[in-house]
Amino acid sequence: MPHIDLNADLGEGVTDDAALLAVVTSANLACGYHAGSPATMRAVCAQAAQRGVSVGAQVSYADREHFGRVARDVPRVTLREQVADQVGTLTTIAGEEGVEVRYVKAHGALYHRTLDDEEQALAVLEGSRGLPVLGMPGRLLTLAVAEGRTVFHEGFPDRGYAEDGRLLPRDRPGAVLDDAETIAFRAVELAGTVDSVCVHGDHPGAVAHARAVREALEAAGLGLRGL
198 CB contacts (<8 Å, ≥6 apart)? Predict the structure, then answer.
């Protein structure tokens, strides 16, 4: 049976982590820089261990004020140390709860910056302990492949895409979708082109969207498996 991963952002304090963990197969866990805390990391890791959900480090700029969604000009060495701190903190907590950190994913502005900015992309790679990388095509994944690292391509059924294949900025019409049926349909369309589909955990309808996506993927004959 062909399979795909369903991931969501957890530990951000804006959604029902327990309900999402009952649906997704991989959890992108906030590591304290844009959201989250050691307590939330520990809680999500403990539940992920019980449910067999894969855990990934969602690394960000140090920007809790703007939820990591504002681009920062952080020197490569500083960003590398910040990424290493986030991955290291989560790795320690995850190990204590019986799970391993299986991949790294950039969050928000850092995610989009590393699509084109080689210095920022290298900082993420240098600070992330050789972990597999989850993301969209761009410099980060290209450099990861060149290093011999595993990469996972992801798609976003709850976001609108521009003609260049990038996500529409959130302030553009059609950038954020909120109809569960439409999101589920788009997830099935994306499934043939990516390794993982992402449902944004900070949306008020995140749990309903994730359930609809999972049901649609299974109805299309796809097995779900974590990264």
Answer: 7, 8, 9, 28, 154, 155, 156, 157, 158
Structure token digits, residue 68: 């990591």
For residues 194 and 177, what is the distance between their CA atoms, to the nearest angstrom?
19
**Which pLDDT score is estimated for 143?**
98
Task: Give the pLDDT of residue 204.
Answer: 78
Residues of the chain predicted below pLDDT 50: none
Q: How far apart are CA 40 and CA 30, in angstroms?
A: 9
Contact assessment for residue 142 and residue 125, using Cβ atoms and an 8 Å cutoff: no
Phi, psi of 90 (to 5 degrees): -65, -40
User: What does pTM read for this prediction?
Assistant: 0.95
Helices 180-191/206-219 angle, 10° precision: 50
Contact criterion met (CB below 8 Å) for 102 and 132: yes
Please tell me the predicted confidence (pLDDT) of residue 31: 98
